[in-house]
Amino acid sequence: MGVLNVIGLGYIGLPTAMMFAAHGIEVVGTDYNKKLVDTLNNGKLTFEEEGLEELFNKAVSEGIKFTTEYMKTDRYIITVPTPYLSDTKKIDPVYVVKAVETVLDHCEKGAIVVIESTISPGTIEKFVKPIVKEKGFTLGEDIHLAHAPERIIPGRMVVELENNSRTIGADEREVGEEIKSWYQSFCKGEIVVTDIKTAEMSKVVENTFRDINIAFANELAKMCHREGMDVYELIRIANKHPRVNILQPGPGVGGHCISVDPWFLVGDYPDIVNVVLGAREVNDSMPQFVFDRIHEIMRENNIKDFSKVGLYGLTYKENVDDMRESPTEQLLHIMYKYNIDNVKIYDPWIKDDKVANQYHDLQSFLEEAELVIVLVGHSEIREKQELLSDKIVYDTRNIIRYGKKIYKL
Fold first, then answer.
1. Which of 81, 91, 323, 395 matches a 20 to 30 Å C-alpha distance to 123?
2. How do residues 228-260 score in pLDDT, each as one tens digit?
3. 282, 217 contact by CB (below 8 A)
């Protein structure tokens, strides 16, 4: 087999390319973003992640290359973004389609093209196979298609790449087994080979399952607030049942998986999907719920100006620099809608100015805030929460034990 060309060097593509390279496979990573490619070629990573620098150094020592050009080879992995259309909630395959078209302009006969990008069931059938035919290729002879959805989470990418089980979807069993052998170079988890559509559905269903369970916890939080109950105490007691495991509520759902993938099912099966849609609506409503609670707390404590309010955390989860679809960004959009643009904002993981009134050290941020809204449970605030002792705190993550007055979700 020839060089492995990984297309797309974002949060999934870059670690995947480096993992293959670090385990002895000749890899070229391709991305249209020249600035990103130049940064990598200058020996610098484009985002922070535990264990990523060590993996990067190992991959570089093994000869990984980064370029804006597609390679002429016989094996490709496509890891480009897959947004959804806001009006129909269906997947927008534009990046996948463009990547496949370009691959077909460069590939060798008999090439295997693996799509890792998260896609809705039937995407390859509806959008990818027609491109292959339009280009004059014969499926199963000139080109072999497969889907191998990633199953990792920011904050644990390297560990999960190595240890999580994988799914390979290929309509030709021998092609699936060939791709399986690639991933076996580093993956210690079970690798299951199935058909393409089942693989497509499996990834979306996994994230939808999590979204539904989070929505249940968030709906409980709303009910408990109305009744003056402690939702965390309720969940703690309920979880003592041997077959109950309720998750923790939060200010919303972010990231590019759980907050996006369920919409693919809503868009594709509008006549069937009810529970999934309800869960999405509950989780998308949480930033508004948090905004309303901030108003309540401000009135109760006679805080009249949002300039006295500080939002702690911009990322969608703790201890990563990933802001995609973050609840804090959703909350800020609500605030901006009401012309509220003077809240103070701080996140230790976001170094560059991403929003207005962003601070870059905890102390100066806290000096300006009378009411602190804890939206992300970074290790920093867990370890330094004594600094909140003289603050009014609205803790949406149930991690703060110090404060002049503490409000829970």
1. 323
2. 999 999 999 999 999 999 999 999 999 888 988
3. no
Give dist(CA 389, CA 383) in Å, integer: 13
Closest C-alpha to 67, from 43, 109, 103, 38? 38
Give the residues of the chain that fall short of pLDDT 70. Answer: none
Environment class of 36 (CB within 10 Å of its CB; exposed 0-12, middle 13-18, buried 19+): middle
Residues of the chain with CATH 3.40.50.720: 4-195, 229-408
pLDDT tens for each residue of 146-188: 999 998 887 888 999 999 999 999 999 999 999 999 999 999 9
The predicted structure's pLDDT at residue 154: 78
Q: Catalytic: which of 89, 107, 257, 408?
A: 257
Q: How many angstroms separate the first and last alpha carbons of the chain?
A: 54
Catalytic-residue membership of 203: yes
Are the CB atoms for 239 and 246 separated by under 8 Å?
yes
Side-chain half-sphere CA neighbours of 69 within 13 A? 5
Mark whether 187 is an active-site residue.
no
**Considering the domain 229-408, what is its CATH architecture?**
3-Layer(aba) Sandwich (3.40)
For residue 362, give the 3-state DSSP assignment. helix
pTM, entire model = 0.89
Identify whether the C-beta of residue 162 lies closer than 8 Å to the C-beta of residue 135.
no
Which one of 65, 203, 317, 391 is the catalytic residue? 203
Q: Between 3.40.50.720, 2.30.40.10, 3.40.640.10, 3.40.50.10190, what CATH number should domain 4-195 receive?
A: 3.40.50.720
Distance of CA 60 to the CA centre of its chain: 26
Phi then psi dihedrals of residue 127, to 5 deg: -115, -30
